[in-house]
Design brief:
By secondary structure, this protein is mainly alpha-helical. It folds into 2 domains: 8-171, no CATH class; 188-235, no CATH class. The chain has 12 helices and no strands. The chain has helices at residues 8-17, 19-38, 43-53, 56-68, 72-82, 85-98, 104-109, 113-119, 128-159, 170-186, 189-205, 208-234.
């Protein structure tokens, strides 16, 4: 892939496309920053985690692990389980990312739940190079929103006392909003309903430490079968 200058047309388009994440990440990021400083940690830890770790749910969970005095190996295993879903994201986006040349390394690093939701339903662009740049701009903007929100929250938490009750639910609320948006965009509610039911039954019937992995694996299998059945039906 050739070296690029900023494509203002694509950048503006990426900004408009990423506005739902902007609204969510600023809010969730601020909540995370407030939790960090409210837990007694320095504000710069928020910046460092958001730049290097960049995993919303993982960062929230990390605070609990810090407080519980979890060992490094235990924390690593928990984070692996929580973020294992990203392997499925990466596999489904591999062909698109390979066409991005050197940009693919950042695209892989920055593939959060919300960014995956945007990139997996991209609008049509003229060339493969445009698609790669568009994905890169969306990914950079999404991380910028998250870093900005978390730092704002951390600095505000140092200066203003806040009641932290219920703030941890903010990330779940963002997932729900993005889920509704994807249902309306894709217009295939069946697969969303089925995977939601699988997740609920996994939490109820399977031990907590493996319920997330079990739900993800079973959902992928069921989704694949439903897609194949739909193709067979059309034939």
């Amino acid at each position: 892939m050739t070296r690029h200058r900023l494509n203002t047309r694509l950048f503006r388009s990426a900004f408009k496309y990423s506005i739902p994440v902007l609204l969510g990440y600023l809010t969730i990021g601020i909540a995370f920053g407030l939790l960090v400083t409210g837990s007694g940690y320095p504000w710069w830890l928020t910046l460092l985690m958001s730049l290097v770790m960049y995993a919303g749910a993982g960062q929230y969970i990390a605070l609990g692990l810090f407080a519980a005095g979890t060992t490094l190996w235990e924390a690593a295993i928990v984070q692996l389980i929580v973020n294992a879903r990203h392997m499925a994201y990466g596999l489904s986006m591999a062909s698109r990312f390979n066409a991005a040349g050197p940009l693919k390394y950042y695209l892989i690093f920055s593939l959060t739940d919300e960014t995956f939701a945007l990139l997996s339903s991209l609008p049509a662009e003229k060339t493969a190079e445009d698609k790669s740049l568009f994905m890169f701009y969306v990914s950079v903007l999404d991380q910028f929103y998250w870093v900005s929100g978390s730092v704002i929250g951390a600095l505000a938490g140092m200066l203003i006392p806040f009641n932290m009750e219920g703030i941890g639910f903010a990330l779940t609320a963002l997932f729900i909003v993005l889920l509704i948006e994807q249902i309306m965009r894709v217009k295939k509610p069946g697969i969303f309903v089925v995977t939601a039911l699988i997740a609920v039954f996994s939490v109820i019937l399977i031990p907590g430490r493996i319920s997330l992995l079990s739900a993800m694996a079973l959902s992928l299998v069921i989704a694949s079968l439903m897609e194949k059945f739909a193709l067979w039906s059309r034939e």
